[in-house]
Specification:
With 332 residues, this protein is α+β, with helices and mostly antiparallel strands. The chain contains ten helices and 18 strands. Helix content is 27%, strand content 24%. The strands form five sheets. Strands 3, 7, 8, 11, 12, 17 and 18 form a seven-stranded mixed sheet that branches. Strand 15, helix 8 and strand 16 form a beta-alpha-beta unit.
Length: 332
Amino acid sequence: MAEENLSAVLYAKGDLRIENRPISEPGPNEVLLQMHSVGICGSDVHYWQHGQIGDFVLKKPMVLGHEAAGRVVKVGSAVSHLKPGDRVAIEPGVPRDMDEFFKRGQYNLSPTIFFCATPPDHGNLCRYYTHNANFCYKLPDNVTFEEGALIEPLSVGIHACRRAGVTLGSTVLICGADLFAERLGVAKELGADFQLTVKKDDGAQQLAKKVEEILGAQPQITIECTGVESCIQTALYATCSGGVVMLVGLGAAMTTVPLVNAAVREVDIRGVFRYCNTWPMAIAMLSSGKVNVKPLVTHRFPLEQAVQAFETTHQGLGIKVMLKCDKNDQNP
């Protein structure tokens, strides 16, 4: 294929380059995709800034990107459910082995899983990318490429809500890192009933009391998305007895929390690692119009300006920065 394959490649901490790489031929169970929209995740920025996340350390050049959607260009010999021209969203985590985690439907926990843009696995922030066809999901005509790319972060929320037991009628507190009025305004636009601006001198128990005053009761479920110690403490104090605290954000390896307070009130502490079995539900949510992710995209850049896009994300100037990889189609 006489096409360029511009790719955003991280060579080392702070060293992000845009370079041309070979276009891979799809294997029997793979598809070759012309990438369209790829969102920048906080983990992408973290690798760029620090060269590692926990035990995942960058040791050789790696293509970034895992929030993605594109168009099928070529299919492998064993692929029958997709064809060239299909628009698809990509689930970035693909199990390599049919191990016990795979068998019980928790393939996201498999220690050998492939995951886009997690060392040593390449991501899909490029013009052309090959991926396992079983983890590419056809998009309905009324779902855009950008919405398809946003299924990845939406899936984090779906998986967290499933693990926490969120149902109709649940009272939920979401702890986020958004300290700016503009970002809290978007949260309200997307369905939050109340917003609480946190002051730096607010203590965890003081904040928990404010939450109860605003809601009129303690929340049954708290979804903690920051990983910050003080926020986890607030989540535990705020949640009602018999409730659930879901830890989504990842922070320090060791964290001081009021564990006895949670234990004697039977507050369950649960964790999540990415997601599994969420793409079909997410697509149904978007296609039905029940969930609207479009307002989350605040900035768009062509792939050639990936470094500028990463800087914009790092500076906190937008909510979701989207890179457009198809030079002939820069539409949402």
